[in-house]
Amino acid sequence: MKERILILGGTTEAYALAEALSNHEDLRVINSLAGRTSDPRLPAGETRIGGFGGPEGLTEYLREQRIRAVFDATHPFAATMGWNAHQACREAGVPLLRLERPAWMPEEGDRWELIQGWDQGVNALQEGGSRRVLLAVGRQELTPFAGLDGIWFLIRAVTAPDPMPDFPAAELLLARGPFDLDSERILLDDYGIDTIVCKNSGGGATAAKLIAARERGIRVILHQRPSRPAVALATSVEGALNWLEIRREQWRCEREPIRAAG
Ligand SMILES: NC(=O)c1ccc[n+]([C@@H]2O[C@H](COP(=O)([O-])OP(=O)(O)OC[C@H]3O[C@@H](n4cnc5c(N)ncnc54)[C@H](OP(=O)(O)O)[C@@H]3O)[C@@H](O)[C@H]2O)c1
Prior knowledge:
The protein is built from 9 helices and 12 strands. By secondary structure, it is α/β, with parallel strands linked by helices. The protein has 2 domains: 3-102 and 227-261, Rossmann fold; 111-223, Rossmann fold. A 6-stranded parallel sheet has the order 3-2-1-4-5-12, sandwiched between helices. A 6-stranded parallel sheet has the order 6-11-10-7-8-9, with helices on both faces. Helix 3 links the parallel strand 4 and strand 5 (96-99). Helix 6 (181-190) packs across helix 7. The model has no long low-confidence stretch (mean pLDDT 95).
């Protein structure tokens, strides 16, 4: 019988993990996507789409589907799911690993201002005299900035916000990473950007804007990651595979106790 693995996904790491597990014949990999995008790229293995109905719904799902291990590979800012996974796995007695890319760290020359919420970001823009802002916060988190007068925004998003908040002065740029350093330099220069507002997502796909900002002495207002439960953590797919290997060995012993003991 194949052991069932659940990957809570929606990230590059989740796709890579699903791909790495796809050639393990003793595993059945189920990917879970929130369903935020209408036509998502499908990961290797099976895919289910949509919320579970809170931690209770996830607990029930884990029991019904007889899931043996869960990877929380959701985005660093998708914290609700992390807390739900923690609670559900504890209730259902299923091992949980968080797979999370490391956060970006400041380097010499950076002009970062760290914030914990977008209201702080709005204040920082007003008080710091920003005039031309690259807003890369995700299409669902634009609203707090829409009321700001006297600031022009370049809003970069993967898909168009729907509805688009009513900004007094803004341009929408639809683009999907990865973004390379040269194109980020050109973008900042061509649009005369003096401030970037973004999340500390980490990873290589969207880090180039921070290097280009450092080179130009541009302010970066950086949203810190939300808090998460203390669970086993891997920062790479390789680390996640190592963690699973220990579980697989345990499962083999449970299936074949005599051979394992001998
Ligand atoms: N937040 C970001 O900046 C960001 C960026 C890139 C990608 N994403 C991806 O987009 C998805 C949603 O992000 P979010 O910030 O809205 O998450 P969130 O705030 O942590 O989750 C909100 C609710 O969405 C459902 N959900 C989230 N991830 C799910 C998954 N992988 N499978 C099934 N249901 C899921 C859960 O609903 P129920 O309670 O009903 O189970 C959860 O309570 C995540 O999968 C994340 O990896 C998020």
